[in-house]
Structures are given as C-alpha cells and as structure tokens.
C-alpha cells in the first residue's frame, strides 16, 4: 500500500516538474521584454514550485527503485542517465530564468527556443523505458 502512495506522489511530482519544464522556455520566448517585477515573479514560481517538484520526483524515484529492488536492472540505469540529462536541462532553464529576471538584456540562446522539445524527447524515452521495462 505504501508503494502505491509513493508511486502516486512520484507521478504527481513528475507532472508538476514537466509542466514547468515545458512551459518555461515557451513563456520566456513569448514574453521577451516584460517589466522586471513580472520576470521576478516567473522566476520565483519556477524556484518555489518546479524545483521542489524535481527534488520530490528524484527522491521518490529513488525510494521506488530501492523498494522495487530495481537498481540492478539495466533499464533503470538508462532511465537514470536520462533523468540526469533532464536535471541538466532544468539547471540550464533555471540559470536562464535567473539571468533574465535580473535584466532582460540577456538574449536567449538558440537552443532555448527548442528546450521544450529536448524535454519532450527525454520524457518520451523515460516513459517508454518505464512502461516497457519487462519487455526489453
């Protein structure tokens, strides 16, 4: 029963994390030059909601891996590599938000317009690994 609650909390944390990861680059690209108070609020939203959701997803995922004794399975090792890549994208987005909230003079790098596509690709691969783990 506890396992199912952990799993539900993990899924919820991942949904919140991915919602922020998918929306942040689109919002930044669409907003461009907005008043600094709005830039600071967007950064605070990311920092207070999306980052804790990432930490929750990571901690709950580790707990599920320990509970299910899956750390010896190759699909989980590959998933962990993809999750590490996802946290790298998260860090890049967080850093860009920080710089953008300080001043709008920082231009968006070319990859930033496609950051949501990178997130989607990593998410799709992770989902396939989790759903098809026993088939591979």
Describe the structure.
There is one protein chain. The chain has 136 residues and is an all-alpha fold. The protein is 79% helix and 0% strand. It is built from 4 helices and no strands. Helix 1 runs antiparallel to helix 4. The chain is elongated and about 50 Å long.
Helix-strand string: HHHH
- Give the overall average pLDDT: 89
Strand residues, percent: under 5%
Alpha-carbon Rg, integer: 16 Å
* SS field, number of helical segments: 4
For the largest beta-sheet, the strand count, sense and barrel status come to:
none
First-to-last CA distance: 27 Å
Percent helix, as a range, is over 70%
Number of strands: 0
Low-confidence spans: none
Shape: elongated
Please identify the structural class as seen in this structure. mainly alpha
Key traits:
136 residues; mainly alpha; 4 helices; 0% strand
Offer a concise description of the structure.
The chain is an all-alpha fold and 136 residues long. The chain has helices at residues 2-31, 36-67, 74-102, 115-131. The model has no long low-confidence stretch (mean pLDDT 89).
SSE blueprint:
Blueprint: H1 2-31, H2 36-67, H3 74-102, H4 115-131
Helix pairs in contact: 1-2, 1-3, 1-4, 2-3, 3-4
